Amino acid sequence: MRKCLSVIGLCFIASAAAAQQFPFAPPAPGNHVALAQAMPQLARAVLRVYREQDRETYLDNLFRLQMVAGQYSDAGNTIAVLRAPPASNDPPQAAARDAQYEIFARAEARTSRGAISLARAFQAEFGALVRPLDDRTSALVMRLFNGKDTGGLSLLIDQTALHRELASDLARQKGKRAIALADALALIRAYQVDESYRTFMPFAPVLVTEDDNRRYIVWKNVQVRTPDGAIVCAQIVRPRVSGRLPALLEFTVYADPLSTMSEARRSASNGYVGITGFSRGKMCSPDVPVPLEHDGADAAALIDWIAKQPWSDGRVGMFGGSYDGFTQWAAAKHMPKALKAIMPSVATAPGIDMPMEGSVDLSFNFYWPLYVASGHGLDGAAFEDMARWDRLFHDWYVSGRAYRDLSAMAHVANPIWDRWISHPDYDAYWQAMIPDGPEFSRVKIPVLATTGYYDGAELGALYYFGQIDPTPGAEHYLVIGPYTHITGQRGTVNVLGDELSTLPGYKLDPVAKIDMGALRYAWFDYILRHGPKPAILKNTVNYEVMGANAWRHAPSLAAMAGRSLAFHLDAKKNGNAWLLSEGMPEHTGAIAQSVNLADRSDANRKAPGGAILDPALDTWLALEFVSAPFAEPVEVSGLFSGTLRFVTNKRDFDFAIELYELTPDHKYLQFAWYLARASYIADRSHRHLLAPNVPPQLTFHSGRLTAAQFARGSRLVVLLSAVRQPNTEINYGTGKEVARETIADARRPLKVEWSNSSVVDIPVNE
After folding, report:
1. pLDDT tens, 618-633?
2. Which residues does 591 contact at the CB level (< 8 Å), separation at least 6?
């Protein structure tokens, strides 16, 4: 007889219903009454047959099925089992998991048993669960109630997004009369999350405030004057303890008190004074909002103010991601005495990776100033209106108008963006915002940078890290893995407290799963409280090797690779592609590339592929080069580089290089890319135009790294493409200011003859 593991009286066995279909016809969109009748029926049908081998997956699905089926007492018990940490390990994150749903399920069960309103029942169950919790666990539970109806940052539960996800899952069932098990579980999950938050969020804010006031001293809208007479606004959360404490500061332009309160509360729950500083002009600051330009000096002024307060021990650490990573480096440019350590995550670098990358302006930066600089708060409606911006960029592309005409075409004043694109060089305007040149040598404080191979701001994060003075013994560290812009700062625990296991098309290695928030407090405890060093920081550069399920550690970025493999862009055909050959080709040759920069026939093109691991590859406007299969597994780790030799008929052009592993089962794993304007490769501060029909030699160094284990039989793929698309400015190659060029400047097609002596150097670790 087969032995099984029993939890709540059920066995975890492989489900015979894996391919089973359940009767389900989705109601018409917007018919909430019909949906509320149909979903419990579906949940009960699935409950009768659902089994799963993996205990955690099973319990997670089970409680959602029970909640949607109306079995609230059972759901509360299931969640309690799921939340119970192992006896030998009791991390607050595990203890906080799905607490919001346990509170809600037990409140619904209490309501069904007696004459009590759901609001009162929720209040009672909230108190019963939350009051006994320690501060660290409570802070994580409170984060689960950060609801918001529109817009929203990554630390907020965006209820509009929950509605969209449910509507999307329902739309996939349109016209069908039955639903498969996997789709049913996904739909039930989306419905359970959306319906739960829709129901309990009206009760939550007052309860969260009551818990905060019991545990902390909270000061909001604290005004601090800067030396130049401006005012910055601060939010302060102090533990209710006596004595002076170190402070942890997040300085941000994202003026959302719910999100920032969540992080300040978490700092306070870990025994620090949690402080959020806002860019001038945001929150209670009466000044005009201007992102980027004043943040370094203003953050330094706020740090000086913090150090003088009676509750401060004179030491300040800074943390935060994206823009809030930038503000740490901006503050470090001024090196206030009280700043003792920073943890910049996915830090963007003005003039380096925003609003341009490789000196090519990226269109999504157009609407960001409208989001953050239209008032003292945030204009979430403007930021979320992607249909508007996609239409704008499409219409601009088709029109052939100058890039700087975007503001006029959008019928909106955007002076900050207009100012940005008037500085195409990395000039004094950008250099004034962050440390420049020798100023990096003054950054002697401990630094822990985090980013990801799929982080849009990886370029900026690694730029900063690469500029730090590599003094022996310096406490400078990098943690990097297969993370995105969100997971590179949050880790693989999402805003709902769930662990993320996949990227689009790609399943994460188990060891890649990490909680960056937990690492944050371990880091500052190590620096400010003489705690143990976080275990992951075994060397300066700490990186996860995709496919190897292993962390590696190196003393520098360069030391990640033991050697490099030189691949030449061979003029020989390799099937439908060109050969990527190791060693110099036997005969001199060239590959011709021609792109009509005036062509707009691709304006509505749907690109194939796009996932990180995908069976399709988009080769539009690109030359594809494919290597021979690797005879043995090889670890590609580090920054790739190369030397390009060519002849062109233009004075300038923009291009991209993308690297892929072509797996033996014919899937493409993207692992690094490089975008550049040819005239800025040698010097981003000064443009050096090409001489038409004169062969230059451009040596490039990618600012994005990767670490991936290539399987035996895999091939390396290099895509070399010209850039002509709606989402970036278009360089027509005249040598004029690119933002002023129009389609009339296209004239003859761009022609490039790539010499087969061009080489791409791939770093490998042996």
Report:
1. 999 999 999 999 999 9
2. 569, 571, 578, 623, 753, 754, 756
